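call fold(seq) -> C-alpha cells
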Amino acid sequence: MPTALITGSSGLVGSAAAARFARQGWAVLGVDNDQRQRFFGPAASTLGTRAALEAEFANYRHYDADIRDEAAIGALFAEHAGGVDLVIHAAAQPSHDWAASAPFVDFQVNATATLHLLEMTRRHCPAAVFVYTSTNKVYGDASNALPFVERDTRWELDPAHPYAARGIDESLTVDRSLHSLFGCSKLSADVMVQEYGRYFGLRTACFRCGCITGGNHAGVALHGFLAHLMRCAVNRQPYVVIGYQGKQVRDNIHADDLAAAFEAFYRAPRAGAVYNMGGGRQGSCSVREAVALAERLTGRPMDVSYDDHARKGDHIWWISDVGAFRRDYPEWDYRYDLAAVAESVHAGAVAAQSAR
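ret:
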C-alpha cells in the first residue's frame, strides 16, 4: 500500500488530495493543526473537514502537528522512514494582508516550514515525490504591466498580446515587482523546492496556482474570494468588492482538478519542475461576473458595495496558461468548468449554512 503525507490535510487542497488518494487505498498521513482558524477566525476553521476525513476513511491517520516545529516534523518522518511515497505540501498562510500584520509568522509558516519538509524528505524518504502548492503571487504584480482593455464586466488583455489566448505562462519574471510579504515567503519556498530537485535530485514540483476553490473551501474576506462571495450570497450578508471596479479577473480551478494534477505528476515525476496551474480561460471570471453567478444560483440579488482602494500588489488580470503541464501530462484535463465550480462552491456554502 503506497503512503502519502499531506500537510494542510484539513484545508481545501489538502483534503481534496487526502480523499483522492484514500479512495484509491493509499495510507494517508494528514498533518494539520487548524492554523487557518487562528489566522482568520472561527468561520475559517477546518475541524469539520478533518472529522469528515477521519469518519470516512479508516486509512486516514491525522497528526495535529505544527509544520514550523522542526522536531515534531522530524519525528513524523522518522516514524515513517523509507515508507512515504508522496509528500503533498498544501499547508500555508495564504493572505496578502495577514502576512503584513505578522511577517515573521508568515515566513515561518510558508518558507521555513517548507525547508523543514524538504530536508526531512531528503533524509528519511529521498525516493518520495514532493509536490508543493505554490502560487501565482510568486510573480508579484508583474502581470499588472501587461496591456489591458476595459470591457463592460471585466478587464481583458489586449488580444494582440501573446498571453491573451491561453493566459500567462512560466516565462513571466518573478523579479522587479511588488510581491507582498506573502508573495515573498511563497517565492522563497518555491525556489527552495526547485533547488532540492535540481541540487539534490529529489523529484519535486511547484504548482503555481491561481484561485483554488471548491465545496470544502472555508472562504473568508482575507482569502478565498469565490467561496467568501458565495457564503455572503447564501447567508444574505453584504459583500464588499475591493478595487478595480470589480473587473479584476481570476481563473478558478476546483481543488479536485488540482489533486488530479498532483497524481499525474506522481505517476511520472521530474526533478525541479515548475507549472502554472489554474482554471485557464474556461475557469475565468471577474468579480462582477462572480457576483452575477452567485445571484443566479441563489435566485436573488446580492448586497454589494465597492471600495475603490485596491489591495496593494493585487492582480488586475490573471489567467494561468496550463500548457506546460498539459504537454508533460496530456492525460490530465479539467472535470470542472466555471459553472460546475460555482455550483460546487454554492453547494458547500448551503451545507455550511445548514450546519450552523
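The chain has a mean pLDDT of 96.
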